[in-house]
User: Fold this.
Amino acid sequence: MTATPAATVRRHHWIVRLTHWATVVVLAGLIASGLQIYEAYDRFGNRGGPYLASPFDGAQFPHWSRLGGWLAGALNWHFALAWPLVAFGLLYLGYLVRSGEWRALLFRPRDVPGALAMTKYYLHLRREHPPQGKHNPLQKLAYTGVIVLGALAVLTGFAIYKPTQLSWLTALLGGFQAARYWHFWIVWIFVGFTIMHVILVFVVDPASLRAMITGWYRGRFPSHD
Amino acid sequence: MTETERRRLLGAQTPGVDRRAFVKLGLGGAGTALAAACGWDGGGAIRPLLLDWSRVNDWVGEKVLFSPTHLARTYSAAERSAMLPSYFISGMMPMLRDPDRWRLRVQGLVEHPLELSLDDLMRLPRTAYTVKHHCVEGWSAIASWHGVPVSAIVARCRPLDTARYISFDSFDAGYSNGWDLASAMHPQTILAYGMNDNPLPPAHGAPLRLYSPTKLGYKLTKYLVSMTFTDRRPGGYWEDQGYPWFGGI
Assistant:
């Protein structure tokens, strides 16, 4: 793209890299044990109905995708892995706040025009990649969204873990079966996000993969912000 | 500074290191996949760790998240679910040959051991409510229950100071559950002899079962024969097989 050699910039703090890859592993375990838990009762609603609409009613997920062997094993995996998910999540958020890096990540109303420009670029309605800093507005939208999604995963999880003690939370999320329903759907949003995320890394900015491993970025968008 | 030096300083992580990082990442992924393949037993190494961690979660559930006074939401009789599945461990539905001779034995670390008939229990204070039942499998159902609060039994048998747990035992093939005293003393924890305004049916634990909206269904012992106060944490049918011991919700 540019004639001059790309500058090398320090991109990701070790906390960001650690929490990123740790979350990949922990989330994989949570989803796999969650699919095993789902198998014990594969629909959403009080017994006798009515049931919430779901394309996965009665679904059996393949053996390789499940963790725990049976319900008790899956529950123990799930409740153990929930701790590191929350711990790494808080560590990451704490770092964002302390370092001020949240500014480069948080999607705000002023990012809307830029997000539209990026959408046009991806839809081939615009030839040039719009100028950007560390993250473009669509990335900000995706990364802000996935942090919110992580928080929702934890909240819906607590709502179905302790529906009596945390009844206010369960009620806020629409009740036990509704919270369970959203807890399950969050998985598929996460999976969709991850697929898009990986595709975009390799198609648009492969150098960002190395940056997330080593911390150093040498690619098309060498901004420090 | 030469270009080589600059690269060494700035691009300290050379592509060679990148590949190593990739290999590490790949090994990490393979490790996760291996754990998945080994499943619950994890080659015998992971299971004890998971069970130890489950005890930590039990502690959090019992000491941090459980409230002895917070009441579960109640519903109207009209909101009852169309059905509530039942289960038992025996090959056939457990039934008493001579229901008149049935007694609930209250024993262990108590000042006054008791032997209570169903009539005795019905003369004690009565609690009735319609609540949501939560199964560990993920299903739920609303039903009504009535019976005597466990706290009323405790007031009569007077546990010793050393008593910290209760073991609830059944005549269903040795099914039992161990409870912490605080959960047993919750105002909505009852010995239920009735369901949906009728006598408790055999499918749901007749003549007497434990019920509480503060615990998952597998903690709610059916077909009761005794409750034993102890100072050592009693196991239980599913708990001993790896299900969370506290089972509080």
Residues 206 and 219 of chain A are 8 Å apart (CA to CA). Helices of chain A lie at 14-38, 71-99, 102-105, 112-122, 137-161, 167-172, 176-204, 207-214. Strands of chain A lie at 9-10, 216-217. Chain A has a mean pLDDT of 93.
